[in-house]
Amino acid sequence: MADAVLGEFEQLVLIALIRLGHEAYGVTLCDEIAGRARRAVSLGAVYKTLDRLETKGLVASRLGEPTAERGGRRKKHFKVLAAGQRALKQSLTSLRRMTEGLESEIGL
Questions:
Q1: What predicted TM-score, i.e. pTM, was given to this entire model?
Q2: Could you tell me which CATH class the domain 8-99 is placed in?
Q3: 15 DSSP 8-state letter
């Protein structure tokens, strides 16, 4: 989906996925976004966004192995697909173009 339009939270989730790499899952994504973006993030919002991004064809998921510390449950891991990288690049490029020259006006 080359023309995918990303919302702000979708951008944050994709960036966090790229930073965390192949072991990214809901809790680590929440922690990454909360720590770097300094905003409260609910696990439900992250999973809803991941589902939406997967439906758009921008991320893929896989189930990990069951672990004892999770009571035998499996973690659902996510990764950014090439289409997701393209959509994020396009979105961030548009944002940079829109803010270019506004550094003093918006305090950047």
A1: 0.87
A2: mainly alpha
A3: H
Q: What is the pLDDT along the chain (108 residues), one digit of tens a residue?
A: 446 789 999 999 999 999 999 879 999 999 999 999 999 999 999 999 999 999 999 999 999 877 777 667 888 999 999 999 999 999 999 999 998 888 888 887
Contact indicator for 84, 14 with CB cutoff of 8 Å: yes
Calpha distance 58→53 (Å, rounded): 5
Task: Answer positive or negative: Cα dihedral of 2, 88, 103, 41.
Answer: positive
Q: Please state the domain extents for the chain.
A: 8-99
Beta carbons of 73 and 27 less than 8 angstroms apart:
no
